[in-house]
């Protein structure tokens, strides 16, 4: 009983931490590349409006990046404290991937972010532009390594047993494991979408406060444009990622489709309430043979159900619902971005109602990202590393009292930080780029 | 190739931890000194560390990463035993890190709140790191005496970071703030002297192994060079601080360099006390090491990348050389 509780608390603590952390890189990776765009526009045109735009969004980036850094440091410790079994069993694979992330990405982005934020008047323009690009490359490299590890945990390849330890036989196969290219593309596009909606939403918020702000108009347009391009791309990539999952982790797909029993011509369940105890769906709305058609491109094809994997199958309900939240949010984002693009064509002013909708969608990327993360991580259970290591076998032996105390501390800290982040971002957006141009006035210069 | 990989990685980890202590030490120290300065001075102080703190903190991730990657067995034991101080440190670092941004971007009482949290986070992280060190040296022995000892080390490390922060400000500021920084540095130095003396006296009493290593004639005579050099450095820093206080402008970098040297010597002393144990009296570096295949793979990358990291860190310090100005954004 005690172990069960420890597992639950350790899991909640780590899950909370990752969920909190993922919000910020989810924005900063995409936003870093948008900053490159703004910086290039500024260099090309020399227009003060672009400079002000760059400064405003560099400020948003700095804040987001700091949130990501500090919550990431916590993770680097919790890998060991909460999941010692993880490092003891697969540390020879996970360790080097994490080390490469620190060595190639963290120092790069941290150092050049300093130059990017504080060096504007100290380095030549080309060097400042280069620093902005290096920060963007750093954020992307960081995603590359951590997703290589995350994907390897989902679809492990390239490992061998030697001297009683699991080690890498072929690093190439470890890094480019079957799900990595799909997960990397899917996550990068997700970050682009999240950042695009953040920029569009905050610009819309600014326009609600100051309808004449030209800079906010152009950033709204850029955000909508990027979203309108990325949203349909994501639909295609997401579908490919799903087919890849069907090939390598069919149990996850069974949970996503709430398919309890293996059958030919499986239906596509649009909505239902999966009942884990009765192993059946209630209140079902479904398209007959739909799942077989979508996943196997053949109406009568056989799909494996949960029964084919039990007892090593994930819980159905959370995976099923999270998947629908992710796809639903994605479809809304697609519809809104295309409608917005059409409505804003040829520089038309956005109606207030549309601005309100974009403002409401500022953090829509977070919803989709978290839902997608839940699908992929819960869908992997009961495995931590598929077929290699069970989650239960990796949990640590930290006392419940310590876990409880630290969990309370983390929850309080995260709540304060998240609240402050949203409030400050909204304030910055409402003040617009003019305010940041004169920001040094608030800190008198000597 | 007959490379002693665990030894190589112990060195790498040691360098990372020392780099962290020295680099984040100065910005945590500046954070702890905030309440002693007025609004404008605070802006200058933050501006002096703004471009660096993030990269400085990355050395901690590298240090703990090396422990995690190269010595997975020790990682679980050490961080499991230090669970609560580690959590306290992380919470401190979180508040400190985001307060950098929030204190400029928030308004009114929010801004004042984040200023306080900036100070509090710096202090909490420093004190917790000292407590971690205290527990670590004694091999995680439990008991009231050991707890007091950890508190003592916590207080000393705060003093050490204040010394680093204050001497950094001597280098990076001018005028009234520099004057104040010289005074702070003197207090920090006294605190460190007291702390180093106390820890050096108490540590051999706390640990049999450490006592054997240091009090073993005639080796002791050679080892006494270490405290002697530390003392000489301390006196040197004090003299230069006094000169600077009287209006001299030469060698403003010397107090900071001297403080870094003091930290390096203290670190060397600790390393000597512990080696070859990674967990005192329980686990040596060779017992705790990961599989050579993993270590080789990292070593190749580290040999390529670490020189690059050092190069662009130096570049960044060159870009931001000279005196710090408020609101340089």
Major sheet of chain B: size, sense and barrel closure?
Answer: 2 strands, antiparallel
**How many helix segments of chain A?**
13
Which stretches of chain A of 5+ consecutive residues score pLDDT under 50?
435-446
CATH architecture of chain B: Up-down Bundle
Q: Structurally, how many domains make up the residues of chain B?
A: 1
Helicity range of chain B: over 70%
Using the coordinates above, name the CATH class of chain B.
Mainly Alpha
For the CA atoms, what is the radius of gyration of chain B?
A: 20 Å
Strand order of the largest sheet of chain B: 1-2
Distance between the termini of chain A: 63 Å
Strand content of chain B: under 5%
**Mean pLDDT reading of chain A:** 85
Beta strand count of chain A = 8
Mean pLDDT of chain B: 85
Our estimate of the beta-strand percent of chain A is: 5-15%
How many β-strands of chain B, per DSSP? 2
Question: Which labels suit this protein?
Answer:
heterodimer; A: 446 residues; two-stranded antiparallel sheet; globular; B: mainly alpha; Formate dehydrogenase/DMSO reductase fold; 2% strand
Protein architecture, described:
The complex is a heterodimer of chains A (446) and B (329). Chain A is mainly alpha-helical and 446 residues long. In chain A, a hairpin with a 3-residue loop joins strand 7 (383-385) and strand 8 (389-390). In chain A, 71% of the residues lie in helices and 7% in strands. Chain A contains 13 helices and eight strands. Chain A starts with a helix and ends in a 9-residue tail after the last helix. Chain B has one domain: Up-down Bundle (Formate dehydrogenase/DMSO reductase fold), CATH 1.20.1630. Helices cover 81% and strands 2% of the residues of chain B. In chain B, strand 1 and strand 2 (283-284) form a beta hairpin. The model of chain B has no long low-confidence stretch (mean pLDDT 85). The interface between A and B is large, with 76 and 70 residues.
